[in-house]
Automatic annotation (TrEMBL):
It comes from Agromyces bracchium. InterPro entries: DUF4440, NTF2-like_dom_sf. This is DUF4440 domain-containing protein. Transmembrane segments: none annotated. It holds the Pfam family DUF4440. Residues 11-103 form the DUF4440 domain.
Length: 123
């Protein structure tokens, strides 16, 4: 698969994870998040796949009301591993994001994600 095709797959999958319909659907989340998925949240907490799915689909889940993704960059770090970085403006908060995606055929699955909050004037 060409780098450009991988970039399209990975950025599309990442954007799906920002959609309220996906975030409320445990099956969709299980499909997009690799079994060994881990996330370092804004607070520094380490989340497992099951913990994150429980929170995202639970009664106290918070939907992203507005999400603007800019500066997407995909780098192939191994034949089946892509690193996606971008800036996210969501619900009045700005952060730099990075995600590591494993590609199996045409199926990307996120292995790792981290978001780092940005101040209002950080470039």
């Amino acid at each position: 698969m060409e780098d450009e095709s991988i970039a399209v797959l990975v950025t599309g999958a990442e954007r799906r994870l920002l959609e309220p319909e996906t975030r409320r659907d445990p099956t969709a989340l299980e499909d997009l998040l690799h079994e060994s998925f881990r996330e370092i949240g804004r607070s520094g907490r380490l989340w497992t796949r099951d913990e994150l799915i429980d929170v995202m689909t639970g009664p106290d889940a918070v939907d992203v009301q507005s999400a603007v993704v800019t500066g997407e960059h995909v780098e192939l770090v191994a034949p089946d591993l892509a690193l996606l970085t971008y800036t996210l403006d969501a619900d009045g908060m700005r952060s730099r994001r990075s995600s590591l995606w494993r590609i199996a055929g045409d199926r990307p699955r996120m292995l790792f994600h981290q978001g780092t909050p940005l101040g209002p004037h950080v470039g």
